[in-house]
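Researcher: I'd like a structural prediction for the single chain below. Treat it as a standalone chain; there are no partners to consider.
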Amino acid sequence: MDLDRIAATVFGIRLREPQRRALAPLMAGRDTLVVLPTGSGKSAIYQVAGLALGGLTVVISPLIALQRDQLRALAERGRPGHPAPRSAMLNSSQHRDDRRAALASVAAGGLDFLFLGPEQLHNPETHERLVTSPRPVGLFVVDEAHLVSQWGHDFRPEYLRVPETVAALGRPRQLALTATAAPPVQADITRALRMHRPAVVVTGFDRPNLSLAARPTRPHLPEAQAVDDRVVEVVIAHQTPALVYALTHQRCEALADRLGHAAFTAAAYHAGLPAAARATVQDRFFRGALDVVVATS
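Model: Treating it as a single chain, here is the predicted structure.
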């Protein structure tokens, strides 16, 4: 199937040169590692390739918030005459009925894309549904692939078991995506995932739309107040929506409250909140109902 036609008719986009460079070896049957800057359209690579290959595309995504974002983006891709790709996610925050529905869709061969964390891959029920699905996995994607190298040996050991699942699925072609991987990390990713004759596609990292600045606080004020005041000034001086990062849950709550007093609609987002509350904050932010989200990194 023509990649440009899929990009245009299903997703309403035109493929950029870096995306074409990444798609070429992948569509030729080679496992591929792609290192592209944030915002350069890495998701479109697996979306277009997945539909072109025709099977189920499994996307390993490390964060529930990221899975929700990817799922939302796909749901919005529907165009006249071309319905949105069928997609679902599996994670620990789901209601039992939602999980059952997602697994039933896999078992029935009714999905184009499935998003899940590495831990879910090794859930026996998930593994069984994937292996026996009437729609075989045609593309296996590891998003934020630098985590295979940085986290694989300790924090997220399940990443090291990904090759076992790939083998059990009949060795579909693999695509690893990241915005940050120096050559040693690139080599570690391809080795850890046991990629076969991997193609490595790396583009430039110049981001003229980004800037980095440091601003002094007021030394005569208590530190927390001085930092909060400076953050409010910076947010006021720039456009919203905005994301602000803080080190602790407590600082997120305090700063979100402080921004609220400055006439912004603001909310905190951190692991101390219930999953439903985090989902609500994320959905409100994407709907434009929040000016600022203050989150831990």
